[in-house]
Amino acid sequence: MKTGEDQLVRKIAKTLGTKRPGGLALGVGDDAALLAPRAGFQTILTCDWFLEGSHFLRDKHPPESVGWKCLARAASDVAAMGGDPKHFLLSLALPRTLTGRWLDRFLSGLARATRRLGCQLAGGDTTKSDKILINVTVAGEIRKGRAVLRSGSKPGDLIFVSGRLGEAELGLQWLRQGRIARHRNRPCVKKHLYPEPRLALGRWVAEKGIATAMMDLSDGLSTDLARLCAASGVGARVEADRIPKVQVPISKRRNHLNVTELALNGGDDYELLFTVRPSQARRIPRAFRGLIISCIGEITRKQRLVLIGAGGREEALVPRGWDPF
Amino acid sequence: MKTGEDQLVRKIAKTLGTKRPGGLALGVGDDAALLAPRAGFQTILTCDWFLEGSHFLRDKHPPESVGWKCLARAASDVAAMGGDPKHFLLSLALPRTLTGRWLDRFLSGLARATRRLGCQLAGGDTTKSDKILINVTVAGEIRKGRAVLRSGSKPGDLIFVSGRLGEAELGLQWLRQGRIARHRNRPCVKKHLYPEPRLALGRWVAEKGIATAMMDLSDGLSTDLARLCAASGVGARVEADRIPKVQVPISKRRNHLNVTELALNGGDDYELLFTVRPSQARRIPRAFRGLIISCIGEITRKQRLVLIGAGGREEALVPRGWDPF
A122 in contact with B at a CB cutoff of 8 Å? Predict the structure, then answer.
């Protein structure tokens, strides 16, 4: 009564835990998962591609990182609304040759992420393919009326970001250049391989009700800020000097390395971008549980994005972040 | 402020409708969708791969069929629990060359499925790839405690299936052989290209509370019945003569065409398989809204699958349905 796909599903379910967590009425092994939403809460639903060749490289990215990151980046969309990721569906398509050691290492990274993020496997779909194809759906929850959308920014609001921008992009550049073993422990490489969605900060922002809009930075500040502004029908002025940029050790500095470019256009940081009414701005701390928070500019009525450079020189802030097309 | 991916998302949202349907607090265009589950209902969550080369062929399957079927087959998993599909996330990865006419035709087929199934777009993810990659997540709802699982079959229960089995597989064989135009209107080809998930029957079975277990037939009876039996810890005896088989016009009969094989192992029918206590069996009609329902055998304590052939000869019913591995 056993088939290849069924064996694979059992392996996944076994590695990722089969105990039924809160809110899950039925998990892996039936036609679908059954969730029992709590009264007074809404369900946040999001999905994310994670494809070999586009989002990661089989020979550069350790399988543990692929497992961690496919869940972390989908969970980041839940953080971006202020919610809690609770359950996920794993859609995994693999070459048959990778269903042994590679899959074990992938699942160990994914299992670590499920524990870290408090997000449990509820189901999924597996099949065979030439390349590694991953799609993760995360179902989260948030108290009714608390979700922070992209569309609420008003002229005059101040713009905040968490963390330092461009770190993950620099990590990727180092990873592409060298052997993994040499770079694995550098913070930028770690941030690229094992990003931490800003769940605690997102929850805090939503609970306090102090942000007018919020989103996560997955494709780069220049591209994502343009999306937030488009959704809100506003523009923005950003001061280049105030953007928290990746810090590069002197020994690693190269002439061609432009940290402002990295911070503006580098993807995969999974930091939070949010806007706050000026009267509420003093409630935003300079750091939240060790994570720095910076005010980088303000929302404008005029629907353009402006970057203020050295000496007050203004230029258009053009979206040059990640775009697959 | 525009990027390629954003334009694609706008096109999808425009074609599939942007009005906010019931239960959806926030749809396309933010980090995630927000669902507002109704009190007393549970959320059914399922996802399904639909990949070029594995599940459909670019030169054989019209784009409208790809659009229809990617949603219909995921919705079938919701029908299999007795629920109502309400919202879906579309994860779509395409070669750039297909973002014009192919995408338009794909979206028109998908839009038709959303109207037919009452299932609205709530979000998704788009990216670029060499092959067409699709993953659909469907969120459905069902009154608390009403979902019909795979795991409730008991020895003595009678086994029912809807429709005729093997039709979609025969349709695929014809499609592979000939030019699409010549075959498009044959019922078997239509069933393969535009399957109808059995939502009304699934809902009826769940509401009446008459089934001990239920699932949909996506990979073939021999494989799916083995899964239902494994989940329930039971076996089954199936009478070959009682399986409702695809009907082949005399002009199309070939010596090598074995309709019993097609009915046992052909995939993609999306009919329902369910089991009923003998005392309840008289409540199952011979047809439900024009769809025939057949009793094909019974559940046994002994955990084997047995096929009873001509003259009462018994043989093992081996799972020979679709398995990607």
Answer: yes
